[in-house]
Design goal:
The chain is mainly α and about 180 residues long. It is built from seven helices and no strands. The chain is rod-shaped, with a radius of gyration of 41 Å.
Length: about 180
């Protein structure tokens, strides 16, 4: 016999005999022609082909790896994936609860509301100019006891000028959603 028996390799590797039999069936062991196991070559092949997390579980959590496998990079990648999946689930929960909204949708809503507000202010002078002209004329007549005529069209143009100046100043404001 050139190599080790399953029992001997089980002692050598710290794995159960059942794990050795599974590894042999999966092709993770190097076997000589007589059926014995080449320990050095099998350690290397197992290290390359076996998930380090699975190796650790099968040995009861002992972190003794033989072979060139770098378990720390695997564990870091697996941890990063787990963290990413947890964050993704958290975002999905926040979206369902309504505490998280779609950025494009929020920007479109803000734009629409700002446009509605601007449109309301642009039409405001034409709606109130005549009423304001009458109220101002009444106040002036009350204080001076003389009839006064205020042109609604002139007052409307003055109001439109000031409203447009104010809207132009507000147009320079930019929102930032992050």
């Amino acid at each position: 016999m050139d190599g080790m028996s399953e029992r001997e390799y089980s002692s050598h590797s710290g794995l159960s005999r059942g794990a050795i039999q599974k590894a042999r069936k999966a092709g993770r062991l190097v076997v000589y022609g007589d059926g014995s196991i080449n320990a050095a070559a099998s350690d290397v092949r197992r290290g390359e082909m076996t998930d380090p997390d699975q190796q650790r579980r099968s040995t009861g959590g002992v972190s003794g790896f033989s072979g060139p496998a770098d378990s720390s990079s695997y564990l870091k990648a697996r941890t990063a994936l787990t963290v990413y999946q947890a964050q993704e689930r958290q975002l999905a929960i926040q979206k369902k609860k309504g505490t998280l909204v779609d950025r494009a949708r929020a920007e479109a809503l803000v734009f629409r509301l700002a446009r509605q507000e601007r449109d309301a202010w642009v039409t405001w002078p034409s709606r109130v100019a005549a009423l304001m002209a009458a109220q101002i004329a009444a106040e002036v007549e009350k204080q001076t006891d003389r009839p006064v005529m205020i042109e609604a069209a002139i007052l409307q143009r003055v109001l439109e000028t000031h409203v447009r100046e104010q809207l132009a100043a507000l147009a320079d404001l930019r929102i930032s959603l992050g």
